[in-house]
Amino acid sequence: MTTVRRSDAxxxxxxxxxxxxxxxxxxxxxxxxxxxxxxxxxxxxxMRYYGNKEGLFAAASEIELDLPELGLxxxxxxxxxxxxxxxxxxxxxxxxTGMLRVGVTNEAGAERMQAVFARQLGPVTRGVxxxxxxxxxxxxxxxxxxxxxxxxxxxxxxxxAVEMSTDEIVAWLxxxxxxxxxxxxx
Amino acid sequence: MTTVRRSDAxxxxxxxxxxxxxxxxxxxxxxxxxxxxxxxxxxxxxMRYYGNKEGLFAAASEIELDLPELGLxxxxxxxxxxxxxxxxxxxxxxxxTGMLRVGVTNEAGAERMQAVFARQLGPVTRGVxxxxxxxxxxxxxxxxxxxxxxxxxxxxxxxxAVEMSTDEIVAWLxxxxxxxxxxxxx
DNA sequence: TACCGTAGCCAACGAGCGTTGGCAAACAAC
DNA sequence: GTTGTTTGCCAACGCTCGTTGGCTACGGTA
Lengths: 186, 186
Known about the structure:
The structure is a homodimer of 186-residue chains. By secondary structure, the first copy, chain A, is an all-alpha fold.
């Protein structure tokens, strides 16, 4: 459909640099000039291809959680599977850390984050919890525990949270997530 | 010991304005000029009394969690008590929200947050968990769940997390925290 | 070869930032 | 009443930011 442009490589380089900068510095401190320097091009190119800083952020924060289909596996393992998946997703690259960082300081970032979780985590929970109308609430509980661990481990870097192995985290958080998804409402 | 200065009212006004700005805007977007405007004085006064922006932030983020003595109450209620206490503390003012916001984008903020939790949450957990050498780890797990809920509810404002009543949150998170503190290590 | 859209860089703009130094008024000490 | 200290404001500094407009050079097309 869209043809290949000569500038595609540049666009991709900008996007990659932007993701890294937003992730490590947050929205305000991630400057267009620094992103352009990382990408090896002129700051004005960023403006040409993405309009302005907000547009660049919007393009850089398209996120896929790649959640597994929970309905296809044993009901009693979904907590551990979900936690494992998120930990892997979080360690694979720093896009999620970036989204978290930006979501905290930037209104557009927070909305993006709401959308990602509503659209990608919501449906997954709807299939496994006993009361489908409570699914959003249960998804929010799961998000609170998973985002909280990511916050403690990857952003705030609380030493005990950093030192724990992923297995250990799964062993502790798995049952929590499992309960939030499948237990009867308290 | 220190005598009362005529400028104490000004100092206090600056501090209050700084706390609000840091809380709502984060470290970078909270400008000294805006804080001074809120406090009704000149920006240069902020520099005179607090040295620079970092000094102002350090002074504005002295935080007391006011945690209760967990040893004094029934062991099986400490999870609910802790969650209740944090929710109240969080809703009372926006200092904690601010600390969270700044801790995410600012290195000094993250360190301040590490210190607050290590110094104030750590000791409380040490008395109630079965293996005192694992106390920091358990405290980090508790922090991950409580900070995660604060993140979802007060910062990102995920709609389902905002809509839940505090009782409901306590009913869900209480057992989680209880388990992190008192259950045998998995 | 002549042409035209695209890709890229350079230089500059206006604005906002943290921060500084000096000056005027209010107060305190003698 | 004079002197020294505190409190406050004003004006400016150097810097970085996002953003703009114009210029050169390249690549495909006729």
